[in-house]
Amino acid sequence: MDCLFCYTDVYMRWGFLAGIWLLAEITGYYGLKRLQLWRRWMGWITPLFFLLLAGLFFWGRWAPLPISAYKKLQLVQGGIFLMWLALILAKLVGGLWGIGSAALRWVSPDSPSQGRRAALQILGGALMSLPAVALGYGYWRGRYRFRLQEVEIVLPDLPPAWDGVSIIHFSDLHAGSFIDKGVLTPVWEKMHDLRADFIVFTGDWVNVFGAELEPLVEDLRQLRAPLGKWAVLGNHDYGDYIAGASPERRQKEQAILRQLIGEAGFHLLENDAVTLERQGQRISLVGVGNWSYWRRFRRYGNLSQAWRKVPPNICAILLSHDPTHWEYEVQGKFPIALTLSGHTHGLQFGVEWMGYRFSPAQWLYTYWAGLYRVGAQYLYVNRGLGYVGVPARLGIWPEITHIRLYSGQIHSNLNSHTFGI
Length: 421
Fold this sequence. Notes:
seven-stranded mixed beta sheet; 39% helix; Purple Acid Phosphatase, chain A, domain 2
């Protein structure tokens, strides 16, 4: 049954993408012809890019490549996908402009006005260029536009000795996506400057292979926090994305990754809990394996098992990669004050401006980025530090989160600012 759900979800995603592509081709053909902007090469350019992308995808999926070559291939694939996406969006936007202009009788094939048509052609060309400009910015700058989110949360059950405690939360490193590890230097420097009491990471260390983390181990080891560095695994961290991998191969990849995480000085919580003490007062830090509502992700998390190690009547913080875990398994079922997650990346595209927030991620996830509260329970969804699949971010910038916890009445506020390279 799990496999049935898995394949159904994959087919739905590819079906949605194919539907957008078909709509773009039809709309572009008829709309651009109205403006006399259609050229013969426009009909075959997108299928050509798609065939190139598919060929590289299947070659990379099955060819035994070294990690360095695989990382470069992933970047090339992502770049080709962005160009293909820019082309179909250009056809869609230009086609809609042409059809709309004809419908409003701004341009008519029967009695064309050359001056009006020229103006509409210029405007149509400008509109068609917008997707390429936006995606280009997301590729060259957006994926490295690192943001610091400052969050303050008041927890009624937080012991007084823990009042003002600070936490650095980061997630979704996806180490295999960074060919030049130097682009992350501002991130590590900012983490040093924050001098948090403890640091947590909520999964997706790598894209596919455990060894992807190796170039970043030394930088991660240099991070310091007096109450420790704690982490969990995400859906990309179990070797499940290696094509045709046997259980033994997946276990080997997991072992490599666990060793590198340990060398980086992080304590991995796998369906486990630890008690942290400060001035004689305690809180519990709980961590689980990946658990998702979506069946296409294997479930490794077992919160009931981890909860056996949590003392009664204690303020508990949960590290769980996927926010659907909080929605379906935590909320109202376990007395966990704060859950920290990642996973969604906000789909890496969206708008967050002047209190307005939109991303296609909200069509898939109820809780997709930022701070949420239901009753007395909080969830924070980190937008992710790295990227996967598409090497770009636009509007949903990569982040680290600095959280301060206070004891008292239920109240919270959120501030953010951007730092960059």
